[in-house]
Amino acid sequence: MRAKIGFVSGFNNVERAIIHINVADFAVAVERVVDSRLRERPVIIAPEGALRATVYDMSEEAYQSGVRKDMALRRALRRCPDAVVLPPHPDRYEQAMTGLVRCALPFSPLIEVTDHKGHLFIDATGTSRLFGPPRDVAWRIRKAVRADLGIGPVWSVAPNKLVAKVATRTVKPTGEYIVRPGDETTFLSPLPVFLIPGLDPEDLARLRELNLLLAGQVSQLDLPQLDILFGSRNQCVYRAVRGIDPSPVLPVGQTPPSVKQSHAFGNDTNNAARINAVLYTLVERAGIELRRQNLAAGLIRIALDYSDGIRLFRQQRVKPATANDRRLFNAARKVLDLAWTRRVRIRHLRLTCDRLTFPPAQQPLFAADREKERIDTGVVAAIDTIRGRFGKEAIKVGRTLVV
Q: Which of 100, 131, 286, 290 lies 20 to 30 A from 61 at CA?
């Protein structure tokens, strides 16, 4: 079983209280409700018949055998040969997410669905007179989820979303955790840095080189010291290891935030070099904004307006989510190819980075992929540092110089 620890304490009613509901191995949990014979058996969710199928989700039993998300299915089955392999059923998971929200709605209108993988944030600030302390609200939501959906989530209560998310990670696959206001840094201090949202793989690699493996070790560094190590990301790292996160819980149904950049061509064009130069420029602007907010894009959407008035939309998921300019551009160029199917000239190009989330901390499985990611991230970080000190025009990428 993964680590399970906990602490229970009270809350001052005036303090911010964020509940995080987390259904461990969500897709597997839903499939086990559908077919009870899968309980206690190793289960892998992966597309059937795909030549290069990768793991979409796995049960705790498969996890203990070494199976990880996005691992090649063939490799996963070598590690866990007795696993039951099931195809993903996105419709079932969406219905289950709707059920989770329905169970939480009686207690707060501020319910944020961060993804469709069993995660909810609920802002219970100021609800104590109606429903009791936030820990009681979390317990009642879990009880309702168990009764209505047959799924047992873990939960946490904390002063902000970042700390609440980490707290549920420490008690998966079953458990509960409460972090008092003012205890955020103390709570995070003994935890390994890879559990902290907001630290990307390059941050973790750099910390590992310095043998800084715990959040408490990193929190001993001040901003000037972090600036030497991380440049423009020093503020993000500083806040993450101290559990500082003022971001609000969005009201249920509100459209999640996204980053949008657009360009209107002065003269309609179908010049590939020029269009790709503009696309990279838009990606750079979006990447700067994502990194400023310490977020990563999980989906790229492109809208093309042709000179004859036709507009085409195309989109594609980015796995893993990223704020790296080079990886964003590789994804955006694929989406552009899907949208740019006509010989008519292009008048307007809009890029949208959507499904924003904390940068993923999990590093690639293979050494060659880790080295490539280290180089990509290092280049972007160096460009950010130079522009931060000498201005945006101090350095440019060659592909953006095409007129």
A: 100
Give the separation between CA 181 and CA 171, rounded to whole angstroms. 19
Q: What angle do CA 360, 155, 80 make, to 5 degrees?
A: 60
Q: Which residues pair with 183 in a beta bridge?
A: none
pLDDT score of 174? 84
Rounded to whole angstroms, the Cα distance separating 255 from 252 reads 9
353 — phi, psi (to 5°)? -100, 120
Question: Distance (Å, rounded) from C-alpha 251 to C-alpha 373?
Answer: 36
Question: In whole angstroms, what is the distance from residue 331 CA to residue 225 CA?
Answer: 34
**pLDDT at residue number 19:** 97
Q: Is 377 helix (H, G, I), strand (E, B) or coil?
A: helix
Helix (H) or strand (E) holding 86: strand 84-86
All domains in the chain, ordered by first residue = 1-181 (3.30.70.270), 187-242 (1.10.150.20), 259-401 (3.30.1490.100)
Q: Is 247 exposed, middle or buried (0-12, 13-18, 19+ CB in 10 A)?
A: middle
What is the Cα–Cα distance from 141 to 99, expressed in whole angstroms?
A: 11
Tokens, residue 394:
């101090």
Cα gap 251→347, rounded to integer Å: 36
Kind plus residue range of the DSSP H or E element containing 315: strand 311-322
Contact by Cβ (8 Å): 393, 244: no
| Residues of the chain scoring pLDDT < 70 | 1-14, 50-51, 360-374, 376, 402-403
Strand partners, 354: 299
Question: Tell me, what amino acid is at 190?
Answer: P
